[in-house]
């Protein structure tokens, strides 16, 4: 049985080998697999490129580049043909002018010339005509000898005929004007100068050829744009699969070099025709109009989405008691800007801009900028730490960087503080974070520290009771913690009480001022003195009785003693001046 199956098995292997050999040979020979349809959609082309290996992708890239090269070559030939046709039209018009000039010279030769009139002689006109004929003949012969240009002209004429036929079928063809049967003065057309008629016919023919070439150029440029899209996709796939950087760069440089439209501004008609054709082409102006509309739509959608997300984050931050308003504002702004940045990148991709190199440039520029702005980055880091650890928030009264004021706003670089006299002070975040931070309104309650002094002759118990009554009667003083009212120290001229009630932070200054006024009024009403620094001056006359008559000017002595007393007083000491009898 095995002997019978063995020949059958060998035959199957031979047949399968014969079928697979052409495929293997095709792969080994480096034949492209995706260039059979040059108008394949880009997304479909990308799917076909996905399973290919790097070596296969190189073959594909070379094949697509060859197609692009051929198309660019056709465009260049068509551009040259347009220039040739323009040259032919120009020399034909010069030839016609030369004939007219010769005719005028012959007519002028038969008329007497006026004094001072300048005329061209018949000989000069004939020489000019001969030169125009030579130039026209040379230009026509040059065009006829260039077979590639003739092929392009013929192909453009063929395309124009096909387009007219299609328009005729669709009912869009223009009606042809009736041929003229007579010229001016009712004379038959056959009587017109034959040479001029031939020149006009030649100019008309070349204008028609030139118009066909310009239309064909528009079509070729559309095809070139489509080929560039597909070639770029193949090059990107080749680069992704590990294609050499130098080789990929060469490919990209060639694609960049042949992209765009070359316009000859010296030929205004051709320029307008080219621009108009590009604007109305599917792969030209209409494509970019669609891309720009898509870009604007994407950016607007992401702006709207960014605002929605920012509002959502704002609501979440408002409900969370663990985060500061500074951090909440920062997150809201960051989310909105981040979403907008993503939308712009997606919009640029819709504009067919490769954002990969753009991101690389942004990264490199970011490194350079970060190195140059080290201090600013330090402020940035400090700003992040302040927002995360929230030592203060917007509206808090703080002392930071040696400045006391209310926090108005904050960004990643600085804090804006409004001082009590309404000065706006901008403090770098580095100065804030590296120095001590005093948050005056960081807690819900504060203690009011007051000191009241009474005289040594006043009743301590009475003063204590007055202070306790004043504090307990004030509606803004908190019961818990309890106020502290007690004798604190025996001063130089007073017995000092400390009065330390607790209040809500927002009521601090109101309670401080109210208690100070109320205690003064109650002390005055109930006869409790509030001592102030004073000095007792005792004047003594230290001179003996025997020397008294020797004073010739008592008033002078008294003045001298009074001056001495004033000097002692100014020195801060007690002065006793005895004025004896």
The main sheet comes to:
5 strands, antiparallel
N→C terminal distance: 167 Å
Compute the gyration radius: what is it?
52 Å
Chain-averaged pLDDT = 77
Number of helices: 16
Secondary structure: elements and pairs:
Layout: H1 2-28, H2 42-49, H3 54-109, H4 122-145, H5 147-170, H6 194-240, H7 245-258, H8 268-280, H9 285-319, H10 325-350, H11 355-372, H12 374-389, E1 397-400, E2 403-410, E3 414-418, E4 424-428, H13 429-434, E5 437-439, E6 445-447, E7 450-454, H14 460-473, E8 484-490, E9 495-500, E10 502-504, H15 508-525, E11 538-540, H16 554-570, E12 576-578
Parallel strand pairs: 11-12
Antiparallel strand pairs: 1-2, 1-5, 2-3, 3-4, 6-10, 7-9, 8-9
Helix pairs in contact: 2-6, 3-4, 3-5, 3-6, 5-6, 6-7, 6-8, 9-10, 14-15
What does this structure look like?
The chain has 581 residues and is α+β, with helices and mostly antiparallel strands. The protein has six domains: 1-31; 33-111 and 120-168 and 192-283, no CATH class; 288-372, Helix Hairpins (Orthogonal Bundle), CATH 1.10.287.1260; 376-439, SH3 type barrels; 445-525, Alpha-Beta Plaits, CATH 3.30.70.100; 538-578, no CATH class. The chain is built from 16 helices and twelve strands. The chain has helices at residues 2-28, 42-49, 54-109, 122-145, 147-170, 194-240, 245-258, 268-280, 285-319, 325-350, 355-372, 374-389, 429-434, 460-473, 508-525, 554-570; strands at 397-400, 403-410, 414-418, 424-428, 437-439, 445-447, 450-454, 484-490, 495-500, 502-504, 538-540, 576-578. The protein has a five-stranded antiparallel β-sheet with strand order 4-3-2-1-5. Strands 7-9-8 form a three-stranded antiparallel β-sheet, with helices on one face. Strand 2 and strand 3 form a beta hairpin. It starts with a helix and ends with a strand. The model is unreliable at 15-29, 178-192, 547-559 and 565-581 (pLDDT under 50).
């Amino acid at each position: 049985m095995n002997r019978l199956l063995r020949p059958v098995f060998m035959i199957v292997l031979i047949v399968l080998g014969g079928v697979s050999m052409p495929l293997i040979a095709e792969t080994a020979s480096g034949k492209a697999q995706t260039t059979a349809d040059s108008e394949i959609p880009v997304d479909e082309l990308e799917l076909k490129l996905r399973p290919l290996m790097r070596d296969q992708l190189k073959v594909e890239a070379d094949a697509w580049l060859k197609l692009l090269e051929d198309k660019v070559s056709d465009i260049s030939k068509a551009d040259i043909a347009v220039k040739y046709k323009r040259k032919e039209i120009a020399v034909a018009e010069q030839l016609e002018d030369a004939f007219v000039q010769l005719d005028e010279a012959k007519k002028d030769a038969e008329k007497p010339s006026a004094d001072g009139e300048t005329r061209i002689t018949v000989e000069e006109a004939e020489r000019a005509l001969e030169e125009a004929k030579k130039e026209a003949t040379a230009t026509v012969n040059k065009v006829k000898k260039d077979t590639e240009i003739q092929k392009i002209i013929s192909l453009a004429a063929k395309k124009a005929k096909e387009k007219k036929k299609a328009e005729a079928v669709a009912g869009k063809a223009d009606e042809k004007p009736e041929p003229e049967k007579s010229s001016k003065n009712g004379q038959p057309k056959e009587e017109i100068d034959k040479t001029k008629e031939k020149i006009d016919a030649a100019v008309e023919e070349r204008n028609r050829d030139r118009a066909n070439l310009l239309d064909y150029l528009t079509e070729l440029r559309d095809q070139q744009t489509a080929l560039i899209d597909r070639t770029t996709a193949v090059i990107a796939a080749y680069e992704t699969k590990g294609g050499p950087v130098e080789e990929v760069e060469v490919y990209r440089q060639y694609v960049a070099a042949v992209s765009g439209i070359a316009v000859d501004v010296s030929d205004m008609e051709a320029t307008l025709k080219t621009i108009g054709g590009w604007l109305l082409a599917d792969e030209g102006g209409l494509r970019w109009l669609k891309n720009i509309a898509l870009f604007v739509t994407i950016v607007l959608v992401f702006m709207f989405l960014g605002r929605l997300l920012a509002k959502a984050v704002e609501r979440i931050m408002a409900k969370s008691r663990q985060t500061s308003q500074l951090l909440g504002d920062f997150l809201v702004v960051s989310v909105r800007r981040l979403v907008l940045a993503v939308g712009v990148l997606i919009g640029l991709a819709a504009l067919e801009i490769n954002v990969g190199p753009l991101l690389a440039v942004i990264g490199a520029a970011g490194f350079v900028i970060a190195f140059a702005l080290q201090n600013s980055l330090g402020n940035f880091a400090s700003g992040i730490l302040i927002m995360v650890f929230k030592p203060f928030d917007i509206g808090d009264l703080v002392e930071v960087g040696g400045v006391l004021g209310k926090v108005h706003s904050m960004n990643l670089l600085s804090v804006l503080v409004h001082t009590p006299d309404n000065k706006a002070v901008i403090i770098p975040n580095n100065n804030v974070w590296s120095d001590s931070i005093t948050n005056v309104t960081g807690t819900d309650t504060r203690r009011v520290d007051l000191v009241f002094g009474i005289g040594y002759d006043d009743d301590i118990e009475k003063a204590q009771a007055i202070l306790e009554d004043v504090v307990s009667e004030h509606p803004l003083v908190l019961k818990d913690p309890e106020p502290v009212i007690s004798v604190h120290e025996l001063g130089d001229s007073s017995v000092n009480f400390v009065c330390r009630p607790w209040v809500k932070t927002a009521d601090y200054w109101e309670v401080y001022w109210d208690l100070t006024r109320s205690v003064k009024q109650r002390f005055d009403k109930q006869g409790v003195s509030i001592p102030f620094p004073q000095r007792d001056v005792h004047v003594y006359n230290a001179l003996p009785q025997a020397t008294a008559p020797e004073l010739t000017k008592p008033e002078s002595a008294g003045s001298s003693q009074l001056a001495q007393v004033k000097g002692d007083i100014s020195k801060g000491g007690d002065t006793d001046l005895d004025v004896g009898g």
